[in-house]
Amino acid sequence: MTSTILVNSNPTTLTVQLFTDRVLITITQLPAFGTILTSSITTSQASSKDTYNINILLGRRDDDIIPIFVRQIMEKASIFDGGLKEGRNAIFMIGLKEEGKGREAFVEISNEVLRVYHELMLKY
């Protein structure tokens, strides 16, 4: 499912696609995918706390904000409806312009990603 929103005057295309073992999330303001990351959740058997594992596969490794952004989306999605739990990994492709990386932009983008994700989860 795809959605386009305007973030800081930048058209931002969001796509969420569900697979049996993964979720693919693309967020781009560029004509390219940008940084490609994988993320997973591991739950400690001792404390029942979740650990979020974020790995950059391709792209910018000097942009510390992107992995934080991915973690926030993963955390919200796992609390949101339980769909992203241990064993359900996600792949993110994120290409944002510099002016599209502010706190307000991230809140707006993550809210739309969660809306689209939730809508898809209701269908399946």
TrEMBL record:
Protein name: Proteasome assembly chaperone 3
Pfam families: PAC3
Family annotation (Gene3D superfamilies): 3.30.230.90
Top-level division of the source organism's lineage: Eukaryota
Gene Ontology terms: biological process: proteasome assembly
